[in-house]
Write a structure and sequence with these properties.
two-stranded antiparallel ribbon; alpha+beta; globular; four-stranded antiparallel beta sheet; about 120 residues
Length: about 120
């Protein structure tokens, strides 16, 4: 049964590049903004995130193996009903100082996004 999981996508734009990090699923990327860029920035960030997530899942034997790895890694939890949920962003902010530094120095923006696994 698919699970809807709320994740945070942190990003900033600098020198024609978008820098993105979703610590809950260990997805980060730096990508040049397309020269013909006409999208809303939020839509672009979500589209890039979805592509990176799809590529990451494809590197595993199955979606179930990906989920098990994220559970073992501690990025995802399972509630009493057996539904997956992402750890809160505050967990990662406390664990990884670089995120706090980026938030202060680069003015990271945050998008809450729901994915289905």
């Amino acid at each position: 049964m698919p699970n809807e999981i709320k994740v945070d996508i942190l990003f900033y734009i600098e020198k024609g590049e978008i820098v993105m990090d979703s610590p809950q699923l260990d997805i980060g990327t730096v990508q040049k903004l397309p020269s013909d860029y006409h999208e809303n920035i939020k839509n672009l960030v979500i589209r890039v995130f979805e592509e990176k997530l799809s590529n990451k899942i494809a590197r595993f034997d199955s979606k179930e193996h990906f989920i098990k790895t994220m559970l073992d890694h501690g990025s995802l939890d399972m509630d009493k009903e057996g539904m997956l949920k992402a750890k809160e962003l505050t967990f990662f902010l406390e664990k990884f100082e670089y995120l706090n530094n980026f938030m202060k120095e680069k003015g990271l923006r945050r998008i809450k996004h729901t994915i289905t696994l």
